[in-house]
Automatic annotation (TrEMBL):
Protein known as: TIGR04086 family membrane protein
Organism superkingdom: Bacteria
InterPro entries for this protein: DUF3792_TM
Coiled-coil region list: none
Stretches that traverse the bilayer: 12-32, 38-57, 69-89, 101-119
Pfam family, one: DUF3792
Keywords carried by this UniProt record: Membrane, Transmembrane, Transmembrane helix
Length: 121
């Protein structure tokens, strides 16, 4: 049960970080000259940084196989975000030229997982 609670805390921390970065991005688009065409890239960057944190924390909980645990937890994180976006906007992002961009957060989660296992020693 302790592993589940620590894992849940990791997901909550990553989600809070993602929401904070998204709010900062929204403020930048609203109040500065930040181009709206760059918002998808900004969301991918914020998702990647959050997934790196999640991969790091999750691999610290598991303690081994950092690449796999980090990438898998980041994949679940990305799916949760996409499902939340579908629930809010009633529109699932379609398969387009941006679909491969969602692999960046998964790779970031894997990198965070490697760092988490390496930092444990």
């Amino acid at each position: 049960m302790d592993v589940f609670r620590k894992s849940l805390k990791a997901y909550i921390a990553a989600m809070i970080l993602f929401i904070a970065f998204t709010a900062i991005l929204a403020a930048m688009v609203t109040f500065t000259g930040f181009k709206e065409e760059w918002t998808f890239a900004g969301l991918i960057v914020s998702m990647t940084v959050s997934a790196m944190l999640l991969g790091y924390l999750e691999s610290r909980v598991i303690g081994k196989r950092g690449l796999i645990s980090g990438a898998l937890s980041a994949l679940i994180f990305v799916v949760l975000i996409l499902l939340a976006a579908e629930g809010v906007f009633s529109d699932m992002p379609e398969a387009s030229k941006h679909t491969l961009a969602y692999l960046l957060p998964v790779a970031g989660g894997g990198a965070g997982g490697i760092a988490g296992v390496a930092g444990e020693n």
